[in-house]
Write a structure and sequence with these properties.
The complex is a heterotrimer of chains A (about 190), B (about 800) and C (about 400).
Chain A lengths: L3 E5 L9 H10 L11 E4 L3 E3 L2 E3 L5 E4 L8 H5 L5 E3 L5 E3 L9 H5 L6 E3 L4 E3 L17 H5 L5 E5 L6 H8 L2 E2 L11 E4 L1
Parallel strand pairs in A: 1-12
Antiparallel strand pairs in A: 1-10, 2-5, 3-4, 6-7, 8-9, 11-12
Chain B lengths: L6 H12 L1 H10 L3 H7 L12 E7 L8 E7 L2 E7 L12 H4 L1 H6 L8 E3 L8 E3 L2 H18 L7 E5 L5 H12 L4 E3 L6 H11 L4 E2 L6 E5 L11 H6 L8 E5 L12 E3 L6 H15 L4 H7 E2 L1 H10 L4 H8 L3 H14 L3 E3 L11 H14 L9 E2 L37 H9 L9 E5 L3 H4 L3 H10 L2 E6 L4 H4 L3 E4 L11 E3 L5 E3 L14 H23 L1 H7 L4 H10 L12 H13 L1 H10 L1 E2 L3 H4 L1 E2 L5 E2 L27 H4 L13 E2 L3 H7 L20 E6 L13 H6 L5 E4 H6 L7 E5 L4 E9 L6 E5 L40 E6 L1
Parallel strand pairs in B: 6-7, 6-15, 9-10, 9-13, 10-11, 12-23, 15-16, 16-17, 24-28, 25-27
Antiparallel strand pairs in B: 1-2, 2-3, 4-5, 4-17, 8-14, 18-19, 19-20, 21-22, 24-29, 26-27, 26-29
Helix pairs in contact in B: 6-20, 7-20, 8-15, 10-13, 10-14, 10-15, 13-14, 16-18, 20-21, 23-24
Chain C lengths: L2 H4 L7 H4 L6 H27 L14 H24 L10 H20 L5 H10 L6 H24 L3 H27 L11 H26 L5 H33 L7 H8 L2 H22 L4 H26 L25 H24 L12
Classes of the chains: A alpha+beta (about 190), B alpha/beta (about 800), C mainly alpha (about 400).
Chain lengths: ~190, ~800, ~400
């Protein structure tokens, strides 16, 4: 009974997309343009050659924010989207009717349609793969060259994620929407 | 592992029967056939059954050999995870490492031996048995060597980098006896290895875990991943301990981590480094003690730089970098020295002055004192391994390599371009009539693809050993399929550095097809070729004839065996047996067991290896890391307290592995014997500024692709589907070019058409696109004509010290199509 | 059992069912309906084979033309129900004659709407099961779906009682249908209004605007239905009704325009990102200016104001443009909500930075959507044949 979250030391990200490929391999995600659970976002650089603003460009890895107040959960007509015991927002493919209301409601573009089950899918912190089978890291965390991600239990004050969030400044995405995301970007 | 059957697929069966007329017209209503192709490639998801095994291995998707743990279930590989035990890879796998599964499962893989059925290059092959393939090779080789009177160098060969490369090269160079071997060195890192080795006694490794100031010129570590450099550096940039100066005509992903980005004119780095040196000399900010104790002929070099007026202003004219910036970089470098590094770089085949550039870099780095010291360029320690020797015969009639003399220091790996060009331009002193390729794709990797094709067409025999039907494979007479790295055990390797270790690649799954690891291929070839080739040697090799004169048949056989004429000897043991010997003979059985079980071994590993956090591990405690390795004397002078000023620590007198036992500023022998300038000097004749209205074309690497080797990998293509041309936005606007428009780039040797990507990240007189795309082979379903091959336009110039390719000297025209 | 005793209907043979006056207009409508229905079935066929890949919907634009068309039909249905309730719930005399026809129209419209959405919802059967077993009570779609189901039930009963002339119960179910219909329809607005992620749609506007827009739509449809029924030769009580309808419609259009103006102003004011930029894009687009404003509101409004509501023949024709405008209102509703990309960063290398999300309906989507109109025509024809939808000519006029 944890409350899982993830801290991202995103300054270290080099946009190598190891996380994207590991996620697909671990979770058996279909290849193809729109079908991805996680991504690395790139802010286009500002300025005109040769006066480019290094500070304006950054790599922002992201995925489902596992919000504590998830709009996708609120809008699902069949409760196919639900919170599991660890605070992870999950989708039960047996109950999903593909109304895609959750895709409208999600402010983070976290969801996509899995072509095989014809249901909506998204990052689930590897809950049904790695976590269920004794591992303590997510695929994206484990593979990252510069170790951007720290995954752990936010309710455990001794966990590394809790320590790092206490020690360092961090922000979340679209905080003003009140979704209470559990992905923390360390500044 | 089957994917679930969706309602759609089910209906595809039933509905199609009832709505016959619809389905035909329907496909024209469904857009993008292209997307369907990639998504047809499924992924094997782990079922987490009790049949799950975890097997340690080493990745081969690029040169880094990261340690991985493979999840195998019922003989199916489902996931590759990082193996945290390996110091060099720091518990990670990049995108290509993860995509190893696709390399194994690629339906386009070479599955069995092939012999050409149509014309060379047509791509028509018949399946044969291994024996038939060897037989064919033997027949051809016997004919060639007979006609060439046992000149073994009539057999040319090339190899790409790989853990089993040595198995192949020891066979071709040692057993077959050819001197005509080329590999990627001369299209990659020959000049930097050569430059640094001649200057410092070794190429070394940059200690990016501890450096405070790093000048990274051209090297794009965020995309051209090198372990552990990439992982160590980018955790410390952006104000977290390491200042990074990126010098690159392009704003790469590495530049986005920099404190300063200096957009430099293509090919002018030497001027930049000489100016940095000038500033340090005139400021007298360099480490004087180090220069005095550890650099030979330093005063000569100093005088040379100053008297040549390599001022920042002079450099500004050439490089486009402001003089003030150059001064600042030089001063900051020296202020942070000895924990300051001018990064050596790796694929450094840029310009005609590359060799002197690397020498100048090494000398400048040394002037800061950051050599063989924590935070600088370190040589580290390498754990020894037992020996595995093969006996190589001496072939009297084997001529020296054909391109000798085309550059000053053509070494054992030759100069690919000079070698190839010598064959086709008729200046070869004798014919090279056969060509063996292993794990290299010269059709795509060597500048001027047209000439590579010409060379291959001239051959009487082309044998290619590979895993995928590349463009080079399409030019072969005989194709020998190698097992993919996950299907084989390879020679155990020792990895040196500050935290040395030994790592082992074990077989993860059984071979899916009729493929063999290269050691078995060499064994098979050896067994087939030994006796017939021995007969040829007996016929023409006069020294051998002398040796055998008067010997009985048994004695001849004895001679044959003892002198290595049995070409398969050395390859008959299994790789596992050989590895066992190499490890156990030095470290004992326990070590071997550990290595087999865990994939990694180093002495006291069980004591030292600790988990530091959820992501990071300690491999060696700090005091056990091997930074300073060269034995030295302590200079004892009363007013120097070595505990106070780290600068002074680097004063320890070193014994570098150069001729002078010091950092060599002047290489007079080289000048005397080979005419190569003894000191880095800027030569205007070797530099062509980009003419107005034209562009210099540069090439480079990408984080999701390993040159052309991964071009058919579905998972990686999913991340980036093709290469586009980087073009400055203003220039694009002037020429009315928008994102995705087709443009034509033309050089003196060819032209290509490619989609344009207007961006501010490149200068108005430079063009770039990623190397490795544009395969013509129709057997590569995904790679076929995807993107563009840069070597269709890169001119085959090479610098004259090592014969190393100068890939950034090509001037091109651009027009909208 | 004699069905006629439960629900009185006109008996037909196959021949008599398919016979109608062979006027040019009738033949045209006949062929048009056949054509549209064929197109719809073809589109459905393609969808059954290829699934959602037959549509132009993407990850960032998951709701497309079919959703817009669904809204179009249910808005029409609710509108007819509300306008009809002006007669027998609110007892406005002129509207009392339209009861049966309007409710028949409402039933047909909602059934067509369900038919359209059946090919958009990925698992309609699962929906029926889990909406009951594991309902998401915070979901506007759940409420909308459930309430519309209830609404359909009520208005079928109302129609039943109207046909049987049991006015006590038709009034009760009429009121029930109206209340549930209003609730369902404003929940449909709330589907968009509750979206925290879409500042341009979030808020009170859509739930309210939907009811207003429904009444406008219902009015246009009534013009069309009565124009067609009487072929522009209106009996006096019908003419009286239509003039009143025109005057009411004029008021509704004025209110609608007022709503739209203030929505645009409040969105533009302050330049809030994802709101002001989207709104500017919206009000400068052709869909809005020509479709919604000119065809949907201005032409009918000008005619009404200029003629003080009396130019009812012109109004019938203007209702065609009106319905086209209504169509664009629904399309824009769905499309504009999704215009702002949720992810403003590039995730692939050789692409431009994300701008407004693009979407073009595919041919299949058009076929199913517009084809459904043909289905509605056919059902209306059948309803006209089987039931007596005219008002009775006694004073009660129901």
């Amino acid at each position: 009974m944890a409350r899982y979250g993830m801290a991202l030391d995103y300054k270290s990200c080099i946009n190598c997309k190891a996380c994207e490929s590991a996620c697909k391999e671990e979770n058996g995600i279909l290849l193809g343009a729109d079908s991805h659970r996680i991504w690395v976002g790139v802010k286009e650089i500002e300025g005109v050659f040769p006066d480019l603003s290094i500070g304006s460009t950054s790599f922002e890895p992201s995925q489902c924010q596992q919000c504590d107040n998830a709009p996708c959960q609120e809008v699902c007509p069949t409760n196919a989207t639900y919170y599991d015991d660890n605070g992870v927002v999950r989708v039960n493919p047996d109950q999903c009717i593909l109304c895609t209301y959750c895709m409208q409601a999600c402010p983070y573009d976290a969801r996509y349609i899995d072509d095989r089950t014809l249901t909506v899918d998204k990052c689930n912190f590897c809950s049904d793969t790695r976590l269920m089978n004794g591992e303590t890291t997510t695929a994206c965390q484990a593979t990252c060259p510069t170790k951007v991600r720290i995954f752990g239990d936010l309710d455990d004050p001794e966990s590394e994620i809790s320590q790092v969030l206490k020690a360092r400044e961090h922000h979340t995405l679209k905080t003003h929407l009140g979704t209470k995301p559990k992905l923390y970007y360390l500044t | 592992m089957k994917t679930e059957i969706s309602r759609r697929r089910f209906l595809q069966g039933s509905a199609a029967l009832t709505i016959v007329g619809v389905s035909g017209a329907a496909s024209s209503l469904i857009e993008s056939e292209e997307k369907a192709k990639i998504s047809d490639y499924g992924l094997n998801k782990t079922q987490w059954s009790d049949k799950l095994q975890e097997i340690s291995t080493l990745c081969e998707m690029c040169v880094n050999k990261c340690a991985a743990i493979a999840r195998v279930e019922n003989g199916v590989l489902t996931k590759l995870n990082p193996n945290p035990l390996f110091p060099k890879s720091r518990n990670m796998l990049c995108a290509r490492g993860n995509a190893g599964i696709q390399a194994l499962d690629d339906p386009d893989r070479l599955k069995y031996p092939l012999i050409r059925a149509g014309e060379r290059g047509e791509g028509k092959f018949t399946r044969v048995t291994w024996d038939e393939a060897y037989e064919y090779i033997k027949d051809k080789m016997v004919k060639i060597l007979d006609e060439e009177k046992d000149n073994r160098s009539a057999i040319g060969c090339c190899a790409g980098e790989g853990m089993a490369e040595h198995t192949y090269t020891s066979f071709m160079q040692g057993k077959i006896g050819t001197a005509n071997f080329v590999n990627h060195s001369s299209i990659c890192l020959a000049t930097t290895i050569g430059g640094y080795t001649l200057t410092l006694g070794g190429y070394g490794q940059a200690d990016l875990e501890n450096a405070e100031y790093v000048i990274m010129a051209g090297a794009n570590r965020a995309e051209a991943i090198v372990t552990p450099d990439t992982m160590d550096l980018f955790k410390r940039t952006k104000g977290r301990g390491a200042k990074l100066v990126v010098v690159d005509p392009r704003f790469t992903n590495t530049a986005s981590h920099a404190d300063t980005w200096l957009p430099i004119e293509v090919g002018t780095d030497l001027a930049f480094v000489l100016a940095l040196t000038y500033v340090a000399l005139t400021d007298e900010s360099y480490n004087k003690k180090f220069a005095k104790e550890n650099m030979s002929d330093f005063e000569t070099y100093k005088e040379h730089v100053i008297s040549n007026n390599y001022t920042p202003e002079w450099a500004e004219d050439i490089t486009g970098i402001k003089a003030e910036e150059i001064r600042k970089v030089s001063r900051d470098f020296m202020a942070h020295a000895p924990r300051a590094i001018y990064y050596q770089g790796r694929r450094t085949a840029w310009s005609l002055q590359d060799y002197q550039l690397r020498r100048a870099q090494a000398i400048f780095s040394a002037m800061g004192g950051g050599i063989d010291i924590k935070g600088g360029i370190i040589f580290g320690k390498t754990l020894p391994l037992g020996e595995h020797r093969t006996n190589s015969p001496i072939y009297d009639n084997a001529e020296v390599r054909i391109e000798k003399g085309k550059a000053a220091l053509i070494g054992g790996s030759g100069s690919w371009i000079a070698w190839r060009n010598t064959i086709i331009d008729g200046t070869a002193p004798y014919p090279v009539r056969a060509f063996f390729a292993y794990k290299q794709n010269p059709m795509l990797s060597v500048p001027n693809t047209a000439k590579t094709k010409q060379m291959l067409e001239k051959m009487d025999l082309v044998v290619v050993i590979d895993t995928m039907p590349s463009d080079t494979v399409m030019m072969a007479d005989v194709v020998l399929p190698e097992s993919v790295y996950l299907e084989r055990e390879d020679p155990v390797k020792t990895f040196g550095g500050a935290e040395p270790s030994i790592a082992l690649r074990k077989k993860v799954v059984d071979a899916k097809y009729d493929t063999k690891p290269v050691i078995e291929i060499m064994r098979g070839l050896g067994e087939k070729l030994s006796k017939p080739l021995f007969e040829i040697s007996k016929k023409y090799d006069e020294s051998l004839q002398e040796e055998l004169e008067g010997l009985t048949e048994e004695e001849v056989l004895e001679y044959y065996n003892e002198n290595g004429y049995d070409l398969a000897d050395g390859y008959r043991h299994s790789q596992e047996t050989i590895n066992h010997h190499m490890v156990a003979s030095v470290y004992g059985e326990e070590a071997w067991k550990t290595l087999r079980e865990k994939g990694v071994f180093y002495p006291d590993m069980d004591k030292y290896f600790k988990k530091k956090s959820v992501n990071a591990y300690q491999y060696y405690p700090e005091h056990k890391k091997s930074y300073s390795m060269i034995e030295g004397q302590l200079i004892n002078e009363p007013y120097h307290d070595t505990c106070v000023d780290t600068k002074e620590i680097s004063v320890l007198k070193k014994e570098f592995r150069t001729a002078t036992k010091k950092v060599a500023c002047v290489l007079s022998n080289l000048e005397k014997k080979k005419g190569v300038p003894s000191m880095p000097v800027w030569n205007d004749e070797l530099y062509t500024p980009t003419p107005k209205g034209k562009f210099k074309f540069i090439t480079g690497r990408h984080g999701q692709f390993t040159q052309s080797a991964t071009a058919n990998n579905a998972l990686l293509i999913d991340l980036l589907s093709e290469n586009y041309l980087w073009i400055n936005k203003r220039i694009a606007k002037e020429k009315d070019i928008e994102l995705g428009d087709m443009v034509e780039v033309e050089s003196s040797i060819g032209k290509i058409q490619i989609k344009a990507y207007p961006t501010e990240k490149i200068g108005p007189n430079v063009l770039f696109f990623v190397h490795g795309f544009g395969a013509e082979s129709s057997e590569l379903t995904l790679a076929h004509q995807r993107g563009v091959n840069d070597n269709l336009i890169i001119e085959d110039q090479y610098e004259n010290t090592f014969g190393s390719a100068a890939m950034h000297e090509t001037i091109v025209n651009l027009r909208r199509v | 059992m004699d069905l006629n005793k439960i629900l009185p209907y006109n008996k037909h043979t196959v021949k008599s069912f398919f016979s109608f006056d062979f006027t040019v207009l009738n033949i045209f409508m006949f062929l048009l309906s056949i054509g549209l229905v064929t197109a719809m079935f073809y589109g459905i066929g393609v969808y059954l084979i290829h699934g959602h890949h037959a549509y132009g919907v993407t990850r960032s634009h998951a709701w497309g033309l079919l959703i817009a068309m669904y809204v179009f039909f249910v808005v029409s249905s609710t509108g007819l129900c509300i306008m009809s309730s002006l007669g027998h719930v609110f007892n406005i005399k002129e509207f009392q004659i339209i009861g049966k026809r309007a409710i028949a129209g409402a039933i047909i419209m909602i059934l067509t709407g369900f038919a359209v959405i059946a090919f958009e919802i990925g698992h309609p059967v699962r929906m029926v099961i889990y909406n009951v077993l594991t309902p998401g009570l915070t979901s506007a779609i759940w409420w909308m779906g459930t309430l519309y189901g209830l609404y359909l039930f009520f208005i079928i009963l109302e129609f039943f009682f109207l046909n049987n002339k049991i006015h006590k119960y038709s009034k009760i179910f009429g009121l029930a249908g109206l209340i549930v219909g209003l609730a369902a329809h404003s929940n449909l607005g709330a589907v968009f209004g509750f979206l925290v992620s879409r500042p341009v749609a979030n808020g009170v506007f859509y739930p309210l605007y939907f009811i207003l827009s429904a009444m406008v739509t219902g009015s246009y449809l009534l013009f069309l239905m009565y124009g067609w029924r009487y072929k522009m030769k209106f009996p006096p009580e019908v003419e009286k009704f239509m003039i009143t309808l025109a005057q009411v419609l004029g008021l509704l259009l004025a209110i609608l325009m007022f709503f739209e103006i203030w929505r645009a102003l409040t969105h533009l004011y302050g330049h809030m990102p994802e709101r002001a930029d989207i709104m500017l894009h919206m009000i400068t687009s052709k869909n809005f200016l020509i479709g919604e404003v000119l065809l949907g509101m201005l032409i009918p409004f000008v005619i009404i104001v200029y003629s003080k509501g009396r130019a009812i023949k012109a109004m019938v024709y203007a209702s065609i443009t009106g319905m086209i405008g209504i169509f664009w209102m629904r399309y824009d509703l769905v499309h504009d909500t999704q215009l702002a990309p949720m992810l403003k960063l590039k995730i692939h290398e050789y692409v431009a930075a994300p701008g407004l999300v693009e979407y073009t309906p595919t041919a299949v989507e058009w076929m199913i959507s517009i084809g459904a109109i043909g289905v509605a025509f056919m059902w209306y024809y059948a309803a006209d044949k089987f039931f007596d939808l005219d008002h009775s000519t006694d004073n009660n006029g129901q």
